[in-house]
Amino acid sequence: MQSILCIVTSVYLCSSSMIFDESTKVSLLHKKAAPDVRLHQSLKSHDIISLNIGGELILTTRRTLTRIPKSTLAIMFKDTWESRLPKDRNGNIFLDCNPILFRHLLDQLQLSDTKQFYPPLEPSQVEPFKRMLRKLGLLKLIVLLEKNIVRINIGGQTFTHHRSTLTQMSNATVHLNSSSSHPRDNDVFIDSDPKLLEHLVEQLRELPMKNTSYLKTPSSKQANSFKKILNDLRVNQRTHSSLNINYNTTWVQNGSTIAGGIGKGEGLSQLNWPESVCVDDDQQTIYISDSDNHRIIEWKFDAYRGRIVAGGNGQGNRVDQLDYPTDVTVSKQNDSLVICDCRNRRVVQWHRQDNTNGHTIIFDIDCFGLAMDNNDDLYVSDLMKNEVRRWKIGDTKGVLVAGGNGEGNQLNQLYLPTAIFLDQNQSIYISDEKNHRVVKWIKYAKEGIVVAGGNDQGENSTQLSYPRGVIVDHFDNVYVADSRNNRVMRWSKDATEGSLVLGGNGQGKQSNQFHYPKGLAFDRQGNIYVADWDNNRVQKFDVNIN
Length: 546
Ligand SMILES: *[C@@H]1O[C@H](CO)[C@@H](O)[C@H](O)[C@H]1NC(C)=O
Ligand SMILES: *[C@@H]1O[C@H](CO)[C@@H](O)[C@H](O)[C@H]1NC(C)=O
Ligand SMILES: *[C@@H]1O[C@H](CO)[C@@H](O)[C@H](O)[C@H]1NC(C)=O
Ligand SMILES: *[C@@H]1O[C@H](CO)[C@@H](O)[C@H](O)[C@H]1NC(C)=O
Ligand SMILES: *[C@@H]1O[C@H](CO)[C@@H](O)[C@H](O)[C@H]1NC(C)=O
Ligand SMILES: *[C@@H]1O[C@H](CO)[C@@H](O)[C@H](O)[C@H]1NC(C)=O
Ligand SMILES: *[C@@H]1O[C@H](CO)[C@@H](O)[C@H](O)[C@H]1NC(C)=O
Ligand SMILES: *[C@@H]1O[C@H](CO)[C@@H](O)[C@H](O)[C@H]1NC(C)=O
Description:
Layout (H helix, E strand, L loop, with lengths): L1 H11 L9 H9 L17 E6 L2 E6 H4 L6 H7 L14 E3 L3 H11 L6 E2 L5 H13 L7 E2 L4 E6 L2 E6 H5 L4 E3 L13 E3 L3 H13 L16 H10 L2 E3 L18 E5 L13 E7 L4 E6 L4 E6 L6 E5 L13 E7 L4 E6 L4 E6 L7 E5 L3 E6 L5 E5 L4 E5 L7 E5 L13 E6 L5 E5 L4 E5 L7 E5 L13 E6 L5 E5 L4 E5 L7 E5 L13 E6 L5 E5 L4 E5 L5
Parallel strand pairs: 1-3, 4-5, 6-9
Antiparallel strand pairs: 1-2, 6-7, 8-10, 11-34, 12-13, 13-14, 14-15, 16-17, 17-18, 18-19, 20-21, 21-22, 22-23, 24-25, 25-26, 26-27, 28-29, 29-30, 30-31, 32-33, 33-34
The structure holds 2-acetamido-2-deoxy-beta-D-glucopyranose (8 copies).
Organism: Adineta ricciae
GO molecular function, one term: zinc ion binding
Protein name: Potassium channel tetramerisation-type BTB domain-containing protein
């Protein structure tokens, strides 16, 4: 018993020099004499625990503290040891840890199914945070996500930033070799004044439209040094308004997980069968149809958790609920989101500012996919009627723009139209799912043109298997999430077969694999976002700059 107490003693001293020995803990856990690590009868997971962390009072629940089974932290609060932990004068359990780091930890432990931790952004805090995790017996059980963190050593001073802060500008791309998974390889050295980088990053964070024409040079004296930093970070100039990609563009094959990917669940870092993803470059945000959580999640480019912006009040058909939303798009005019609330058979609009509930704009429709043109006219696919209609605000009927000739595989028919994409000329591209093809209906056309697949279900390059998300570049190349083949294919104009763009490495959860990719989106730089449905994550694939 004495040695157990000794462990506990060394553990609560976050800042002590005593290092907790993992192997001792393991052997103790397996000894019969060791106390039962299951929750003691009198302890409840929703108990509120008041902690004095380095002098600051922090309240949390036992559930949060015991989130990672087998960790020392969990063991401390799972049984009668608790009574032996040191307490302050007011009876609060005292842990000598840095309260800011401890809060950063609790924030993440509050999410169910935590398997990864994000390090704090302040570079000087990353090591202390790791030390704290080690002392609490968490580090070996948890993956510390460092690969999306870029360290920049500038003039001898180190800065740590989320990669996306540096890579998401509407007409510039900071290209830091991104494929490496070893955090150390992310280090970039720039021989310049550290203040200039701060100046740059501050601007990148604050500017509403992050195009580099907005970048302010600190002073004329430093203008050249500032340009050098942009150059060292390889800020590539791109035109902001056009997707600068073509048939020769390739993408880094290993994607980075920008949302979810830590198991199915309803925590704010988790997703549950995401069907679609939509990028809003102006807001530096993506919107995800977190379908089986019955909510829409807004995820800032560099965030490690999302924010519920529609639904999230359980499955149901009240005005504040959604039931398996399958698609979402942004209406700039009214600063709102338009959502296909699939199982409620309605299209709803939720304001982005006042988002306590939505209102129905189209009733009684088996909608699945949505697209909006510059006039805010809405295009909606209908799974049961096998058609796509265009709706002006206030329309009660909508105008037929594709299909509507019953279920079938003729050129004027559709068979389960799901995702849709609208180009500048209001031609509409439709994933005609059960025909395993993508069809294009030019404005006013009476029938479609097959632009991908259409050679039965299969996995050779002429075929698709349950095509989903579809997006088109300015050269009319069609990109399609070939969901059951776990790949993204590109079909150029008039091609008879597609070429592999992403995935194609079998079903799985590696960074170059998918498990039923469903939603697709481009951002302004042409990076591709994939709603990787059964991996419960959104992957981002960077354009290959070279
Ligand atoms: C990373 O950048 C360095 C120079 O900055 C270059 O030599 C190296 O080839 C790059 N690596 C990759 C994988 O792009
Ligand atoms: C980029 O900046 C320029 C200059 O301020 C502005 O005119 C343009 O609209 C911006 N582009 C975007 C996409 O915000
Ligand atoms: C940003 O884009 C605008 C418009 O395409 C261009 O004029 C400007 O030079 C670009 N700025 C930078 C720093 O890339
Ligand atoms: C693609 O590359 C080929 C060969 O380098 C070139 O001839 C062609 O013009 C390129 N296509 C586009 C759209 O840039
Ligand atoms: C935006 O709001 C105005 C005023 O409430 C309304 O008349 C208009 O139809 C709305 N437009 C959209 C796209 O919802
Ligand atoms: C749109 O129409 C114009 C004129 O008909 C044509 O030149 C252009 O290629 C079309 N663009 C697309 C994306 O179809
Ligand atoms: C691919 O599938 C099509 C349609 O079934 C078939 O005609 C073609 O021969 C197949 N090609 C290959 C290379 O297997
Ligand atoms: C990409 O991911 C695969 C599968 O995890 C891995 O084997 C490969 O080394 C990765 N490639 C790079 C360049 O990181």
